[in-house]
Amino acid sequence: MALMPDAMLPGFDAYSRGRERPSMRRAPCQHGVRCRDPAARETLPSSAAPAMADTRGMNTATPDSAAVAGFRFDNSYARALEGFFVPWQAAQVPTPVLLKLNRELATELGLDAATLEGPLGAAIFSGNQAPEGATPIAQAYAGHQFGGFSPQLGDGRALLLGEVIDKQGRRRDIAFKGSGRTPFSRGGDGKAALGPVLREYLMGEAMHALGIPTTRALAVVASGEQVFRDSGALPGAVLTRVAASHLRVGTFQFFATRGSTEQLRMLADYTIARHDPELAGQPQPYLALLRAVTGRQAALIARWMGVGFIHGVMNTDNMTLSGETIDYGPCAFMDAYDPGTVFSSIDRQGRYAYGNQPPIAQWNLARLAETLLPLLHEDGDTAVAMATEVLTEFATVYQQHWSAELGRKLGLAGALPDDPALANDWLDLLQAQQVDFTLAFRQLATFAGSGDGAALQALFTDTAPLDAWLARWQARSADAQGDPAVRADTMRLANPLYIPRNHLVEAALSAAVEQGDQAPFERLLAVLQRPFDARDGLQDYAVPAAPGSMDGYRTFCGT
């Protein structure tokens, strides 16, 4: 039962600001990465059964080595949800080399970073050697991809190694990407190339530093083998990713499309226990779960919008129940402000354009709501009414988060009735003159503190509309009390100076992949880990590419 048709998204015009979405030409995935085919089988792969006992050459670490590394697994998903996955093992790689270990994250997880930076880390994070207690599994899920439903997707190039409890008592998934074929691979090789793996590391750490909920990369290992894509042979790699969980809207869709109500109930109960345990005793726990996920996604998308982030593949299998950003494939950050901005090579119609992300999130949540209908009420009409009430709240909840985000970025204390018009007129001004989104807000903060508008004015070709808007903004700002310098500092904390500029990301990845030089990657990563702090000598990291140099820039499917 469809709760919300694709062409009738509530609030769509408000979110996209009435502008036509760009048409996109179909482009092949770079490096030959197989974009998921809508054709899918209806059951778990028949090849799964004999493979359950097939370790495919994987060595298991001794208890001593596991203890030294610090892994303490407690694998609740594998323990509680039998039938929701296929036990599997990573493919062996010939000569693994650890290229990057996220020491901060490793310490947070209670792991011994010093030990893992040696040969043991290369063996574990390549998949060649499993630490004691790991239970590698390929998870099953379905998904709507660019609006088309695939009843079976699953981990085609990924494995959930297991779960650990971090130093703050939080349960965290540790998973591989690029670890070889699984029964869900659908003809793909299950491998990953080094460039996309480093990209995911870089993007995840940038989002984390920006304060946006995200999965993060723990390690990158060069596999010592080549993977073959459209562009030829490329160095292979394995990424280790950490997430609050890998529960997705698509996980629920997998069982809903099979009419497995009891499995849906098991999955919903597990999700509540893992992410929202306080909901377990409520009269309508599954409705409360839908509302909680809706709230998390509304907050997440508002944060994306606030930094100009474009996910690129907001399919339902890429929307987590935890509210974390997941899967950094054809993602990018916007330079000049335009709600129609699209970078993904496979987004032909601009479905996942920057300005369309809020209504697409609502559409995805409607797909989640459909899966929960049998759990909400035995009467179908009543269940639909209950779910629809929550879904219609999304626009209001999102707008609250977005208004608060813009208020922080514009330095507006409190909330006044004219604030939305002031903020929207600012965005219209940026779009009309193709002003850099990040720098415009940052230089507005400078102007707020010093009254010197030279740097801000330099971003505009016609300063008359800017001056008129600034007069309104200053009149509104007069309501705020306090030192202008303090206000400017507060605005800077809401407006990064350094984001993963597309030309900088591409240059860093090119150096690492084509020249074996990781220095540009490391320098860019260090800059992005402190995105709000202006530092001497980093001016080149704070400006967009030269005019025209990134025209037609496209991002591609990666890991």
Main traits of this protein?
six-stranded antiparallel beta sheet; 12% strand; two-stranded parallel ribbon; 14 strands; single chain; 559 residues; alpha+beta
Helix content: 40-55%
- Could you tell me the mean pLDDT? 88
According to DSSP, the number of beta strands is 14
Which outline best applies? globular
Low-confidence parts, pLDDT < 50 over ≥5 residues?
A: 6-42, 46-63
**Radius of gyration, whole Å:** 24 Å
End-to-end C-alpha gap = 33 Å
Major sheet description = 6 strands, antiparallel
Structural category is alpha+beta
**Beta-strand share of residues:** 5-15%
Give the count of helical stretches: 20
Account of the 3D structure:
By secondary structure, this protein is α+β, with helices and mostly antiparallel strands. It has 20 helices and 14 strands. The strands form 5 sheets. Strands 3, 8, 9, 10, 11 and 12 form a 6-stranded antiparallel sheet that branches. It has a two-stranded parallel ribbon with strand order 1-4. A two-stranded antiparallel sheet has the order 2-5. A hairpin with a 2-residue loop joins strand 11 and strand 12. Helix 15 (437-450) runs antiparallel to helix 18. It starts with 11 loop residues before the first helix and ends in a 31-residue tail after the last helix.
